[in-house]
Design a protein that fits this description.
Helix content is 30%, strand content 19%. By secondary structure, the chain is α/β, with parallel strands linked by helices. The strands form four sheets. Strands 3-5-4 form a three-stranded mixed sheet, with helices on one face. A three-stranded mixed sheet has the order 7-10-8, with helices on one face. A two-stranded antiparallel sheet has the order 1-2. It is built from four helices and ten strands. β1 and β2 form a beta hairpin.
Length: 224
Amino acid sequence: MTDGSTDRDEVRSGAGPDRAKVVIGGGLAAVLLAVIGATGGWVLAGDQKPPRDTTLDASGSRAPTSEGSPTPRDRPTTATSQPARPTPNRTGLTVPELVGMDFEEAREELRDRGLGWQFVFGSGDSSRVRSTEPAGGLPVKRGATVKVTVAGAAPESSIPDLVGDSCGEARDELVDDGFYPRYPSGKSGTVTAQDPAGGAVGRWNDVVQIWCGTTPSPEASEES
């Protein structure tokens, strides 16, 4: 025969393990519900994967990026254009040293090298070259004109009689005598008239008109 205290002790000792199982089971269920809840949240939000990291784009807004995305290659740098270099003088032609030389001798030097000339006269009696442009020794292309400054004034020169000569012959003769020819009627044919007339006295750099292939009209003669 037992008393009531023994029965109560057995009941309390048997309830201890059952209560521990209940507590552990409840904890596992809570963890599972948390995991399921988080996964369910992604599914309900319409995302099958966790949200990706984001970075700032050039405008400052956040743009999504993914791991493993290819990195854009650096664009090739465009070479800056260089200023065009001057074409080297392949002929080796240079302006002769003419300073101090008589201007007629200087003209022959230029002519021998295939260069043109333009005389600029000063004042006084000296016929010596004061300077040239380009200067002596500088490279120049064949056929280029060299400006020659003469210290003294343009000397006098007699105008040749050109009527009856071909236009080309008349031109050469005028140039040799220091004049500039002008062609009111063209550069072909025989010289029919000239102004000033042959035998007149002029000066270097004066202009002489020659009519080639045709006779000038009276009006043209009066205008000249």
